[in-house]
Write a structure and sequence with these properties.
The chain is mainly α. It folds into three domains: 59 residues; 159 residues, no CATH class; 230 residues, MetI-like (MetI-like fold, Orthogonal Bundle). The chain has a three-stranded antiparallel β-sheet with strand order 2-1-3, sandwiched between helices. The longest helix has 44 residues. 31% of the residues are buried. The mean pLDDT is 87.
């Protein structure tokens, strides 16, 4: 006992006293509190930034406008014997809309519109049959010779654009319109009084103050136009959906297959390490580089494929929605591979061992045991990849997305545009109407992204399989 006592005393000297322990504990608590405050501040900053983004977009997507029409829609409706209080311009039949269009535009303008796209499949409105046959048999026939006739929405847009001719001369955001709508009307009146040269063709009595939702059903189903009052994003929405379909069709099978090979079948080697390193690096490559890659490979080198020439489709070049979709597939491929690998690593090895233990092959074990459990993580990676792809602009510009197009994409070999391109184009224009339209298109893009993500989450939850 006399020998061990000094040793115990020497060991006890290394333990802090109560006062020292309280001091150390307080120091650690202060560090933890500082870290907690930092993380809370970071969260608050992120939430405020997101709230500011949503507020700006929503605030510019709705509000009061001051509008002047060259011809009132009610007068057009009344000219056909309908009651304007119960019948709107959109309620007129296709024939009535074409008739009103023919009575309000010149023959030359009508011919140009008909050469762009016919009104009827079995008859002509502005062209003679002889002249039409001649121009359609020329070396470069207009698009109207082969395209399908305009639909009701397309003719209605022409009537609004060419006959009604609405002109929005001023607009207010959502919050000012709700808080003080009278101030907006007074500002417009003062502008008319002090600067009459700005509106030489109008008087203040012609101005109609009305509420306008820049994001509305007509805006969603109307093709693009040069007039901001009548333009829409139908073509851009359809182009975006085509891009999403082609991107998923290419990136998901290739990315998941590559992840399965690297995680389940590939043996450790320098070559596999090299491949894995490059996949990780490609996830951080700027999107403009992928655009240059898509331009070189899909638009130029594989032009016969992406233009549809090998299938007998006459196309000027490979700047089609297929080229863009494959380019976006390459852009998202590293994210899909990496996230799929992480999902496969998270599957317990006991499942693999159990499958092999009952006599299943390696592929049977992966297909029946590993993949069902990894599906939630794989779909999460697909969601992240899709969220990146749907908002990219630079690659689409390089592979040939059109800045102005009115024809809807009907297949993978069609010319196209997309919502990011549309938003980019509109924000670059100086007129205030385009800024409101860009905000409405941005809100549409966010809603579309939420819908696609929600669908992926539903699939993930539906087909997820957790080990018991």
């Amino acid at each position: 006992m006399s020998v061990e006592a000094p040793e115990r005393l020497e060991i006890q000297e290394h333990f802090p006293t109560d006062a020292e322990y309280d001091k150390l504990l307080g120091k650690k608590n202060r560090k933890g509190l500082i870290a907690k405050m930092f993380f809370m501040a970071a969260l608050a900053t992120a939430v405020l930034a997101l709230a500011a983004l949503l507020y700006t977009i929503v605030n510019e997507s709705f509000g009061l406008v001051a509008q002047v029409n060259q011809n009132e829609p009610e007068d057009i409706v009344a000219s056909f014997g309908y009651d304007p209080s119960t019948t709107a311009l959109a309620d007129l039949s296709y024939d009535e809309l074409v008739e009103s269009l023919g009575g309000g535009i010149s023959t030359n303008v009508g011919r140009r519109l008909e050469r762009e796209q016919r009104f009827y499949a079995d008859k002509l409105v502005f062209e003679s049959d002889e002249l039409w046959a001649e121009i359609c048999s020329s070396d470069e026939p207009p698009a109207g010779c082969d395209s399908s006739p305009r639909d009701h929405a397309g003719v209605l847009q022409l009537v609004n654009e060419r006959i009604v001719q609405p002109d929005i001369i001023a607009a207010a955001n959502l919050v000012p319109s709700l808080l003080d709508p009278q101030a907006f009307e007074e500002d417009v009146e003062v502008t008319f009084a002090n600067t009459p040269e700005r509106f030489p063709d109008y008087t203040f009595d012609q101005v109609q103050f009305q509420w306008r939702a820049w994001l509305n059903p007509t805006f969603l189903v109307t093709p693009q136009s040069t007039a901001p009052e009548t333009t829409g994003i139908r073509t851009a929405i359809l182009g975006t959906l085509w891009l999403v379909i082609i991107t998923i069709t290419f990136a998901v099978p290739v990315g998941v297959g590559a992840a399965i090979y690297l995680e389940e079948f590939a043996r450790p080697s320098r070559f596999n390490d090299f491949v894995q390193t490059n996949i990780n690096n490609l996830a951080g490559v700027p999107s403009i580089i992928y655009g240059m890659l898509g331009l070189a490979i899909f638009v130029r080198a594989l032009e016969a494929l992406t233009s549809g020439a090998i299938f007998g489709i006459e196309q000027a070049n490979g700047r089609t929605v297929l080229s863009a979709g494959l380019t976006m597939g390459l852009l998202t491929l590293p994210v899909v591979i990496i996230s799929s690998q992480e999902a496969l690593r998270a599957v317990p090895n006991s499942l693999r061992q159990a499958g092999l233990g009952v006599g299943a092959t390696k592929w049977q074990t992966v297909r029946s045991q590993v993949l069902p459990v990894a599906i939630p993580g794989i779909l999460t990676g697909v969601i992240l990849a899709l969220a990146r792809a749907i908002g990219e602009t630079a690659p689409l510009i390089l592979v040939g997305a059109a800045s102005f197009i009115t024809a809807d994409p009907t297949g993978p070999f069609s010319k196209f545009t997309a919502l990011p391109i549309q938003i980019f184009q509109w924000t670059a224009l100086p007129q205030f109407e385009w800024q409101h339209l860009a905000a409405a298109a941005s809100l549409t893009l966010l809603i579309l992204l939420l819908i696609l993500n929600a669908g992926a989450v539903i699939l993930r939850n539906r087909y997820s399989r957790r080990p018991q």
